[in-house]
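Possible regression after last week's pipeline update?

I re-ran a chain I had predicted before the update to compare outputs. Posting the input and the new output here so someone can diff against the archived version. Not blocking, just want to make sure nothing changed silently.
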Amino acid sequence: MTENVQELFAPPIGLKLVDVVDGMKLYSSAKLFKKFLFAFEKSSRGSDKVDLIDKLMKKGLLIPCFKSKGTLGFLKQKFFGSQDSKAILGMYHLENKRVYVLIDNNSTIFGTSSNDEIVSTTLHECMHLAAGKNMKQFLKVMMPTLRKYYSELFTEIFSLKSVPNIDEIIYHIASYESAETVNTNKKLTQYYNMLYDTFKPQTKLEETPFRLQLQNYIVSMKIFFVSFPSFVRSYRKWQSIFIELNHAYTKTFGKRNTYTSPFQELVSVSEVACVMAEMISKDSRVKSILKIVAQGD
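New output (post-update):
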């Protein structure tokens, strides 16, 4: 291979249809799989995970692919595609429990992509995959970290004097990461009551401001579930909450989160692992989580 060791060179040539996801055709090839694995080998972020990534691809759980079948479609997408369609670098599909890394969205018009960025995107989405495939094992690895993260978060949001046991709350948040249809109003009402009963004895806030803060927290989640475009438009309204989501990363991992705009943490415990995988990709927890799906049934 003659690729620059810092870049994956994979033009959209010799591709075949490998999947159709929500009406979107995706194309790949055995050669692309090899190049993708080579990118992991040459990345300091991914070199220790090559075997695990290889297993995920062989199991059909991780698919590097293009939205464009050939060079003409690739260039058309690059020059004329919408910003929304070009913004998605990778995705975990909740229903079919697969990760897709969109090479065309990760690459320049010359067909080159940063190995480290490819690795970061892949690890991020594979954390969602592990939680989706086996939440019980995922929580076994991540629970101490999640306790720390959400303790820091709730301390700031609800002005807590101390943090009681929040395992039940973490399990509740984890329950949203399911492909099953849930009664959102019912679950959010349960969550409101759970947070009130858990944190009211520990808050420094008076009754009215505490209830208002709790209401804002739940309403932001409701809007997220009902209409994501509305959620995005009202993002600034809930900014005080999202700022604390970011601060909790600094307090938990000792590093600032420069990879995501946090909000998924409200409804997704695996998002904490996703950011962890991007911030500290060599952390042993990342490999342990990959093994859940790579070595599982």
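Follow-up from reviewer: compared with the archived run. The radius of gyration is 20 Å. Marking as no regression found.
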